[in-house]
Records
---
Amino acid sequence: MSLTRDQLLERFVQLDAELIKLKTEGQAEEVLWEAFERLAQVPSSAVDHRDRVWWWEQVYATMERHGLTELSRGHLQHDFP
């Protein structure tokens, strides 16, 4: 049975709150990733096929918002010829 979009959104609300709390506490990045994995991972069968693109957009947006992507950290080097 698939989760509703509201149920999936609630996971992201919880994840945002947890990541904000952990950052405020000065926790290491590994701790943030543990929370991310615990709260964002759901079986693919739990996300309706019509909501999968939306789901992945939320996953990536959350990662960017909390500095968990290369782009959000500014670590990419642009070595153009």
Note: Helices lie at 5-24, 29-40, 52-65, 70-73.
---
Amino acid sequence: MALPETGVDADFQQKVVRTTAELLVLLLERDEPVTEDMRLMDELMVSSLLGLELLLRLEEQLDIQIDVEQMDQDQIHTVGDLATFVAGNHRPG
């Protein structure tokens, strides 16, 4: 099933949310869980370097390649925003 506003596969988007949250807990060494609505920079303090590491690990864990050329950082604020972008801008690895 696709998300109506994005045309993105909802099941894959949720898989990306779960994987992103798990990776952020690991990369940020958090004791608390990361949720879909958490803000990447403001709340989680994700730097550009950490963001790159996150994308590389997402590619590895999901066996995909993310088309970062299409990324508009001004549109990606939350974990959910990132997951929607990845789900809509990837190809098999």
Note: The mean pLDDT is 93.
